[in-house]
Amino acid sequence: MLFGKKNKAPDGDRPGLWQRLRKGLAKTRSGIFSGMPGLIAGKSIDAATLEEIEDRLLMADVGMESTARIIDSLQQAARSGTIKNDADLMGILRERMQQELSRIEAPLAIHGKKPFVILVIGVNGVGKTTTIGKLTHVLKNQGHDILIAAGDTFRAAAIEQVQAWGERNRVPVIAQQQGADAAAVIYDALAAARARDCDILIADTAGRLHNKANLMAEMTKIHRTIAKFDPELPVENLLVLDAGTGQNAVSQARQFDDAVGVTGMVLTKLDGSARGGIVFALAEKLGKPLRFIGVGEQLEDLQPFSAEAFVDALLTTES
């Protein structure tokens, strides 16, 4: 069952967001994909051209498996005579890349009993608290009533940052002092969300991947606490990853999935990286839904992931 107000359009429906996405992917596009049109310039596609495309994809951290499938599709099209010009080449490349990413295109659906719980997980420095602020903005604009829990009690700065985002979005924040039991904070937040009939509870969590045993123990306790409060509550384990870390993001995703079970991902800081191709590696290696991507500093720069829009923004060079 979906719930929440329907009088406001989702952020993804507002004009200008494609331009934001295109701008956010500028470093990946200019560093890797710019000049892709013109590669064959009227001649038949040959091994050298395919090798150059392969090198560009690998440099963007697309990953070996996805790159191999993309190149194989181009080779088959070349053999069949389907590629006669740049437009044919770009059309097949665009179609194949979209196919690679379609497996992880699954928007976050708010459903079930209230509150829908979003546990935001990830290592420190990937932009967890900023993502919480932007996600709150997105979901609030969709008409949802939201409450935030400052569940990262390991760092005092994390509590203050979450409180600042709550004030900015005019959303209440449940917090305790540094060192408090994170599960207790989230239990209090659940009670407050239920009392206020909030649609969504967004909870920050401590990012300590280097100590996976402690992370697992804390997250297990948090999940037990949620189940104790109401075993029917839906829970999203939303993993935040930094695009700038490249293939290390895949390693982090695997470790978090093993430790706590990832149900969705957010890829941040795409605007500051030439490694936007890491989206393909995440699709290949993890296959978890990519809910949102971050393409800038503004609140509107956290966007629902669309395979078609992402590839178009990546390959479109004209203004």
State the end-to-end distance. 41 Å
Number of strands: 8
Number of distinct helices: 12
- Shape, principal axes of CA atoms: elongated
Unreliable runs: 1-15
User: What structural class should be given to the helix and strand makeup?
Assistant: alpha/beta
Mean pLDDT: 86
Range of helix content: 40-55%
Record the strand order, biggest sheet.
Answer: 3-2-4-1-5-6-7-8
* Strand residue content: 5-15%
Q: Major sheet, described briefly?
A: 8 strands, mixed
Please compute the radius of gyration using only Cα atoms: 21 Å
Give the SSE string: HHHHHEHEHEHEHEHEHEEH
Give an account of the 3D structure.
With 319 residues, this protein is of the alpha/beta class. 48% of the residues lie in helices and 12% in strands. The protein contains twelve helices and eight strands. Strands 3-2-4-1-5-6-7-8 form an eight-stranded mixed sheet, sandwiched between helices. Strand 7 (290-294) and strand 8 (302-304) form a beta hairpin. It is elongated, with a radius of gyration of 21 Å. It starts with 16 loop residues before the first helix and ends with a helix. Mean pLDDT is 86; it is low at 1-15.
